[in-house]
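Example record

The entry below shows one chain as it appears in the dataset: sequence first, then C-alpha cells.
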Amino acid sequence: MKPFSIEKFSLNLCEVWISFERVHPFLLRSTIHDLRSTIIVVICCLSATACRQDMHDQPRYEPLEKSTFFSDQRASRPVVEGTVARGQLNLDEHLYTGKINDELATSFPYSITKEVLVRGQERFNIFCSPCHGQVGNGQGMIVQRGFRQPPSYHIPRLREAPSGHFFDVITNGFGSMYSYASRVSVEDRWAITAYIRALQLSQNASLEDVPQEQRRQLLEMR
C-alpha cells in the first residue's frame, strides 16, 4: 500500500477546484454565496443564545417570598392603613353594603323604574333562575337535577325580609350559595333585588292590588 501524501492530496484538490471553477463559475459563486449566508445565520443564532439573562432572572422578590430586609420577614408588604384602590372609594354605605348604620336597609338607594325592573329581570334569569326558578319558588333546573333546593322567595320569612338582605346575600353569599360580587355589579344587585320584590308581589297579589282599569278587564275575563 502506497503511503499517503498530504502534499499530493492538496495539489490534486486544488486542481479539481480550479477545473470546477472553469467549468461551473456561476455554480461556484452561488455555492460560496449560500455558504456565506449559512455561516452568517449560524453566527447570529449563536450570538442570540449567548445573550445575558438579566431580564429573565431579575433580582426581585417573588410573591409571598421571605425577606431578610423587613423585620416581619415578609417581602409582600401589607397595604398602608387607609389606602383605597382607585375606583373603590365606596362612601355610600346604603348603595354598596345594603345597610344603613350597620343595619339591613328596608329601602332602595335610588328610585326603582320600569327600566330597572327590566334589567333586574334579565340579570335574575341569567344568574338566579337556574337555582331559584323564574318565579322564585326554588325549583330551578339545577335543583330539579339534584342540587340543594333554596327556600322560596314567597315564604313569610323572605317576604318580610328587608331589601338589604337580598343585596347582602348576592354580595356575600349565604349557605350553599356563593358570592356573586365578582359577577354582578352593585347596581345590578339592586336591580335583581327590586325584581325579587316584584316576583313576591306577583305571587301574592290580590285583586285590590290591581289598578282599576286592569281590574275591570280581569273581571270581564272571569
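Notes for this example: The longest strand covers residues 99-100. The beta strands are 99-100, 103-104.
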